UniProtKB/TrEMBL annotation:
It comes from Corynebacterium pygosceleis. This is Cutinase family protein. It holds the Pfam family Cutinase. Keywords: Disulfide bond, Hydrolase, Serine esterase. The keyword Hydrolase applies.
Amino acid sequence: MKKTLTVLAVIIVVGLIAVGTWRWVNDEGVIPGQEPGEPGGPAATGPAQPDWCPAVEVIAAPGTWESSPTDDPINPSFNPNSFMLTVTRPLQDRYPADRVKVWTLPYTAQFRNINADQEMTYDESRSEGTSSLENELRVTHRDCPLTDFIMTGFSQGAVIVGDIASEIGNGHGAVPAERVRGVALVADGRREPGVGQAVGNPVSGVGAEISLELLNPAVQLVTPGATMRGPRDSGFGALDDRTFQICAPDDHICDAPLGVGNAVERAQGLIENNGVHARYATNPNVFPGSTTSRWLVGWASDLIDRAPDPGQAPASGVVTSVPPVP
């Protein structure tokens, strides 16, 4: 009898160890010691992809005064001169919607200032846009766990996309890092030299939010509710080699000087219709012999063309190479 009880006790202990090990490995689908975003993580071994899901979703975030929260994200029309339309429309023409979903962020893209006191503040607008974009990522990833993302943004939209890419790349974003094929930021107000991959003609300055961080009191006099937050503390993490920074020389939104200088004058520059900032679709001084729009379309197309069929290859095929200037 004593021998039998001993055997039963051993069986129970072994069983508890097995259950504990199973829970240890399967708790929230993550193996301890495995960092978020590593190949083989939860996103790479998720459920089968529904047939209606696109292989890739391209997300575009327009700049200030180029979007509205009521705009159609598939066929935006709020501002027909929006820079992002020079990228999204060619992609929609090139790829069928059942393979590539092109989604443009609808948000209140405004920037309250002394000349437009009735508008939403930059902080509020940026927060709204961030929330809407993250929700789109979460919903798509929930319904289509093997769909990859390409994200791009211009000006205020670049700040939003860059902030979200930083969160994802550092393991606490809306989707796993391995689901992001690439990020392109045009005129990013938080651009920091050496963070991400610089393409196009070199610039020597920094993003306006870095340049003006120590001058926030003066900035508030001209643009109340526009907090200059400085650089992104953790960079782009795992997405650093997939995040491309594009900045036109002398665009004071992304190529601003360091140092104090004339704080009010520089804050005023944030709201002026700077000719360089408004000409990325045609400016030949960013990509010699080409334009930013053409580079972005070629870059995104290269990533899309190399994307695996989710029904055949569950793991994301990450591409980090830079396409030649078309």
